[in-house]
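Table S5 (text form). Sequence records supplied for joint modeling of the two-component complex.
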Amino acid sequence: MSDYQPRALILRTAGTNCDRETEFAFRLAGAQTSLLHVNVLREEPGIIAEHHILAIPGGFSYGDDLGAGTVLANELMTKLRAPLDQFIEAGKLVIGICNGFQALVKTGLLPGLERWRQQATLTFNDSHKFEDRWTYLSAPPNRSPLFADGERIYLPVAHAEGKFVVEDQSVLDRIRASKQVVCRYCDPDGQPAGYPWNPNGSMDDIAGLCDPTGRILGMMPHPERHSLPVHDPRWPREGLKDEGDGLRIFRRAVEFARRELAAC
Amino acid sequence: MQYRIEVIHKPEAKDPDGLSALADVRDLGMESVRDIHAVNVFLVDGELDRAQVRTLTENLFIDPIVECYRICGPGQEDWPWAEGQGVHSIEVKRKPGVMDPVQQSALKGAEDLGLRDHVVAVRAATKYLIRAELSRRQLEEIAWKALANNTIEEVHIDQAEVAYPLQSLQYEFELKRAPLRAAGDEELLRISREGVLSLTLKEMKTIQRHFEDLGRDPTDLELEILAQSWSEHCVHKTLRGHITYEGPIPAGWEEFIDEEGRLVLDNLLAQTVARATRELNKPWCISVFEDNAGIIEFDDNYGICFKVETHNHPSAIEPYGGANTGIGGVIRDPLGTGLGARPIMNTDVFCFGPPDMKEDQVPKGALHPLRVMKGVVAGVRDYGNRMGIPTANGAVYFDERYTANPLVYCGNIGIIPRAQVLKQARPGDLAVTLGGRTGRDGIHGATFSSVELTSQSETVSSGAVQIGNPITEKKVLDTLLQARDRGLYSDLTDCGAGGLSCAVGEMGKKTGVQVEIQDVPLKYEGLSYTEIWISEAQERMVLAVPPENLDELMRIFTSEDVEATVIGHFTDDGMLKVEYGGNVVARLDMGFVHHGLPRFEGSAKWTPPRLADPFLEETWDEESRDACRLALQGPEDYAEALRRILAAPNVRSKEWIVRQYDHEVQGQTVIKPLVGVDNSGPGDGCVITPILGSHRGVAVGCGLNPKYGDIDPYHSAASAMDEALRNITAVGGAIKRAAILDNFCWGNTNRPEQLGALVRASLACYDFAVGFGVPFISGKDSLNNEFNTGAELITIPPTLLISAISIVEDVRRTVTMDLKEPGNALYLLGRTYPELGGSHYLELFGLKGMTVPEVRVEQARTTMNAMSRAIQGGLVRACHDLSEGGLCLAAAEMAIAGRIGLRLRLADVPYGGPPERRLDQALLFSESNSRFLAEVRPEHREEFEALLTNVPFARVGRTDESARFIVRGSQGQTLLAASLEELKRAWQTPLVPH
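The corresponding structure-token record, covering 1258 residues in total, follows.
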């Protein structure tokens, strides 16, 4: 089954803008992709089940004028709840990047302690502004098949609302205890550090999370913007690598689907 | 019924809007204000019960983790941490008719919640709760200087629960005519002025004659249509005018000199900028000066188009909205080029007053430069980022004369299949509007741009300013390209200045067109036919659609909630016919609309200024003598001089701006605007790969030198071109496959001196484009950039922006400017001349000078070609062009960005000029053109040098591990020694306080 191509659904809507490069990264990683507008899924919700991976890419869905991801989260909850529940129950992968992460957190699918009830948020950066900058991530021991324990990845963030905040301390305690934190912002040596390495003031330097099953993942940094060696801002200094750091996230998603979901 | 819902951050959460407002208020010097909370106010009109209002609020209006809310009314909750004794409130709300994106999002959310039928309207306001002892006057100052803009917003101070009734507007049709035939000269001018038509007497008389021949008076709309179509903004009548110029004439223009020694140009643009392109006749130019953007060949399948526009006057009055719609507008240019290009990159270049200007020096009626800058940057950020287009190249320039008349240049690059370049509406095609609805916004933008700004402009011209809604435009982009790829329409253009009037008029130019105005979808009722036709409401495009394709086209748009509407059809009678409910409101001959404009006749004059220059003793006077002598002696402390130049607003790091732009969305930016060991060095140009996964790229750069323009616009223009081409060369582009754009921002060219400066710059455009072998493919001008304070007229310096784009064969052979490793050689390519005129060095002594940098174009071309070959050959580790601050700055920036030590020797610097002017300070700080620094590994030195035939060069430095920057003078003495740390600190002096 090693040449089996899992199917990734890249969801877009008004204001999605990282869809093409997300699709590109999934293809590089060996997936078949469909890039579909949310209206298509609302009309034919059955399409979702035909896929193994659902990706919600970055952007400003519906303008984010009521808060990042708010209107899209509301739409997912009111219009696509059943097919999403089914997709999740089937053990398939969901990945939300940047605006996709914001939407997943606002639906409550992440951290997912209680599905469909919001328990945390991604709010305004401490710097009060949108910032595009590269930072390092380190992965603690975690439940996600997409992050290997202890690895370090260099990725860009580009957002105004990326500060992870929980409803109360118990939420943080629980997601830490159940190894749901998949990556933390860190300095080049892998150590916890303040701004700008933690670009937004996130609690506990949290940059990415998974749900208690490990199969729903969300992250603020953009792995699709480092799928190629020329994406690395330091390639002119350090030379071209074989592939971009971010590609491994997509590869692992594809490998996981190949391994676990080929029968679906 | 109206509900008022107020949302505030919980006491333990950070309130970003409150904190930003607090910072802005502190900028005003009101240090006593300790605490500001921002309250988001939602006004919901509709038939809802409280439970439904709660559902709406909890799902859409609040983030329950950090915010709480109350529904206002009896028994509402108190917020003791924000309210109470000694707290003032200032409530800010957009005026009726100004775009409010909250409405659209809220209605979409309500629909998903099943509540759409119950909601009539949702509007938003922001209430600031301010804890401080403040007088009414102080509160007003805070309101208008920090929180709101009178052009688009209304303010309520210390008023509890302001009610905002929904207004409904009515319009009753009445055909209006302008009594032109009976009017005398004064009356004609009055009609033009009062209607903000910006038509001259000669033009008004031409219109008068036309209607005398027709035997009737024009309708108000016909007059408006002509004013829009004939506006400077739409036809560039000055640049296309017949111009007689007196003053020094550069060599090569002899054939245009008349008996009296004057230069006579029949059509300035055609004989300078466009002529260069024509003569160069590059086979890879696909479309030049024809369409909304110029197009060059990218590869066998695709073309690349590039357009830069300005949005100066709107940005002066309302910086956020002005810049916002500036970038939104220029994105529609490539989108509306050919049958539609996919926008892939934005550029932005701004000119502002000094950010640290004292409040009392700001001319009355103008906004403080800091506020202008913050607003403009936020405007570009919010639109460009939401569109998902990386903003990856630009520049910022400060000069006092831009205070009341800032310049906001926005550019966009797109990629288009070569098969989609040609378009032509055919008789029988339907005219279809697409995207945003039409409202009373942006009336008279095209003609307003030709008006001199005054302290009253804000009140007179508020209609010309608007706020964009990028999501509407993003949806248009998403769907339009699907329709393009299915071949569903035959012509396309964007609605920019002049609105439907210009867009439809332009498309129907060769055929004729008939339109029913009542079919145009409106944001709200109450618009007259004229307002609808000339409104410059944003995010609209016009298509010509063969009737048989209409259904399929509509399905595409509807499937993604984009509104498209048939408003008329193209004819074959060569007439522009506009009806309102069946009544003819305009009927004009396309020939008269597009060719009836009388030729502009201009007289131009230019006299060289006389400015004190240390090298020219005859220019010294009492005031400048000492400064000139000191400049000749050289700085006492070179390190201090370097630090001061590094910290100068024009030089210091622009990271604060660059980071607010998403410069990597689309995953194509491979040389980023910030480079170096910690991604903060000033890159020369950026490189993107328009096709994901391909290594073929484009390099983009820009140049402008307003300071040189004060000395001589001819050399200033040449220098701007040289700088833009240096930028693309330094990253690995090549002038052999480069094209350029011109954007002139000038004062009032009805004054011969201003026009004279424009002529000189235009002559340079021809001379140097031909000299470099680089064609212009598109351009734009913005004249009348002046501000009348009542007491004096402030004119901007002549400002020519040159933007350059080059095809890069393989982006893996590009470089950045940061030094890479110790032990390498640093080469200087190009000759240094004693050209301190307009330099940062002379500015240290309060001087401007006359010895402006010139471009020796043969040499420049040879140097750039050699530099490109060396980079593409993989022989160069780092390359930086020499610009502001000369050799010293360029070398220091390379060392800072790479955190690599550098020793520089001046003894061997290639020099051209009289021996007595070969001073160390001239070698270090002269801003001579066409020079590069290149870092080369020892093993590549021989091969590198072998490439430099006919290029003046020298090995001037060596990289090391010291973390210091050291310069030895011509005599071997240590001139300057500084740590990279301190230099970086100077260079990173914050652009804005806080």
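Note: The domain at 7-260 of chain A is CATH 3.40.50.880 (Rossmann fold).
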